[in-house]
Design a protein that fits this description.
The chain is α/β, with parallel strands linked by helices and 274 residues long. The protein is 35% helix and 18% strand. It is built from eight helices and eight strands. An eight-stranded mixed beta sheet has the order 1-2-4-3-5-6-7-8, with helices on both faces. Strand 3, helix 1 and strand 4 form a beta-alpha-beta unit. The longest helix is centred in the C-terminal third of the chain and has 17 residues. The protein is globular.
Length: 274
């Protein structure tokens, strides 16, 4: 797949806490914050944002790492250049103080910036609230953001942090205890629903992590767990990216059903008509 110029997106910037980042927007309507997976805003992440815009929302895509629009595997296969690009995103992120990679029971410091972005976009776009989708490295960000009452539709797609090396890391996700308690209260009192997506074989997103979320959130956590046979067989890596690289975009397939379920959450929580 070729690089995506993303020239149908509006390009702007947002500053909070002394940190300025580029932000891409597409669509009109209530905001959905789309947080990219590694190594950056790939063409398929951009396509997901377009799908969000197509239902009547504003997809807001902050540039957190990588090169916007770059395809790490333009020839549809692994390469030294693609590996180099992946490492050029992962290594700086892993050592950055903005991201929690190994620690358990902690939210990433970047969450405060993302919550401020969500508040800004809510004021700008209107609507009852904001959606949030995290993928892979950013998967848990959507959960931590949901400690803010503006977040009405959090989606955790293959949440991969903290890196699952120990039993404690496997049985946790990158959110502080205090913020998780706020999310639990919102689930119980406000009917907040949290969607989680993973492939069952994905060692980056162990089953224990989803069991932890079930214990903590109860029926408010809606787990979508897929088999390897459900994944796009032409993807470069093993089954991992439910909404992007491993999506089989055909009606009746399980990954397409997962995508539709996510979009339906945004419709039901953000596109409320009276």
């Amino acid at each position: 797949m070729a690089d995506d110029p993303m020239d149908d997106f509006e390009t702007t910037s947002f500053t909070h806490g002394g940190k300025t980042r580029t932000v891409f927007r597409i669509g009109e309507g209530p905001a959905v914050i789309v947080m990219t997976e590694m190594p950056g805003i790939s063409p398929k992440v951009a396509d997901f944002a377009r799908r969000v815009a197509a239902i009547g929302c504003t997809a807001v895509v902050p540039h957190l790492f990588g090169t916007p629009g770059k395809d790490g595997a333009p020839e549809g296969k692994a390469s030294a250049a693609g590996l180099g690009y992946m490492l050029s995103s992962i290594v700086p992120a892993c050592v950055s103080r903005e991201f929690t990679v190994f620690a358990t029971g902690r939210s990433s410091p970047v969450i405060s910036w993302l919550r401020a972005l969500a508040a800004h976009e809510h004021e700008r776009c209107g609507g009852p609230g904001v959606g949030a989708v995290g993928m892979c490295f950013t998967g848990g960000f959507a959960l931590a953001m949901a400690a803010d009452e503006r977040i009405l539709a959090p989606v955790l797609s293959q949440p991969s942090m903290p890196i699952a090396l120990t039993s404690k890391q496997k049985c946790s996700i990158d959110i502080s205890r205090d913020e998780l308690d706020v999310v639990k209260r919102r689930c119980a009192d406000e009917g907040l629903e949290v969607i989680g997506l993973r492939f069952k074989s994905d060692k980056l997103v162990p089953a224990e992590r989803f069991e932890f979320l079930r214990r903590e959130l109860g029926d408010a956590f809606v787990a979508v767990e897929l088999d390897d046979d459900d994944a796009n067989p032409h993807a470069v890596m093993k089954p991992h990216s439910v909404l992007t690289e491993h999506l089989v975009d055909e009606p009746g397939t399980r990954t397409r059903d997962a995508l539709d379920r996510v979009l339906d959450l945004f419709r039901s929580r953000l596109l409320i008509t009276t």
